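pasting for the record
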Amino acid sequence: MKIKRHGVSIGIERIDDDFLLSIKAVGQLTHKDYEQIIPLLEYALEGVKHPQVSMLVDIRDFEGWGLHAVWDEFRLALKHGNEFSRIAVLGDEEWQEIATKIGGWFLSGEIRYFVEDQKAMDWLTTGNTSNNKQTDKTSAFSTHS
């Protein structure tokens, strides 16, 4: 029997005086996943006292959403859309870059798509955007997209 992993890992780091929320999505997310994810994410954001935080979202192992989970994602984006100043999305497929652009319509803040970890971290911590594969969208995106 093949095991199908799916879900999200959430972490918080400090880089100098700033907070970085990191999220890694794996597999195809379901409504049941969101029932677990939403309270964890809200708890993580509650613990960060900055009005806005940076976020690193790794979707390289992400396969998409179940139908009800799309609605969960949309509601989550609307509720927490203005809490992020910068969101770097790590992906390795064209559909992930497109999803990042679409997700950017629902949140405020700056979003960029990257294929390399270090370039994403450089942008989040120093604003270094030279030679990065990125979206030109200057609005944020869903926390799990």
